[in-house]
Amino acid sequence: MAKDEPQKATEAPVTRDELLSIVQTLVAAGQMTSEKVREIVTATTIEAYDKTSGKFWDEKLYPKKSDFNPQGDKDHPRDRIVGEVFWLGFKLSEAELTPGEIARINRLEPGIYGPDGTWVVHNMQPGSTDRSKRKLLVFFPNKDEDARARLPQGDPWAGKTGVEQMCDVMLGALAVPMGV
User: Fold this and answer.
1) Are 154 and 162 contacting, i.e. CB atoms less than 8 angstroms apart?
2) Which contiguous run of DSSP H or E holds residue 139?
3) pTM for the whole thing?
């Protein structure tokens, strides 16, 4: 029989408790030492690992697909966020953003935006010229239900999320440049 072929069970498998009872009997009768038990258990564990390794899960083959990147980060990795960007005080993470959201967020610049100039991208490190070390805080009216209802909610037919729509407004309709 080839090594990789599974053996057919001719009898019902031994339960854990039955196996423990057999081993205890053999050890008590002096027919097996505790070192020999350890050796058998170690060899059996290694053999079981070798037989199942890569059959159920292989990290190298995992495409890393998610709702945020349906194409998978393995073959289509997302860009990194340039610097640190805080959205209403919460630090944004690439793992929770779509590639389109990351691309738009990376293009944001400090300023006052929105249909009525109440959306703000604030530079938390004024004077820094290194974009990779930038820290931006994005905030907009959202305290009451009416304010949240007026924000872009996303457009599934256009394939855009609410964040993408908000960034599109901010990237295309700068109301007043911010002095910081």
Assistant:
1) yes
2) strand 135-139
3) 0.62
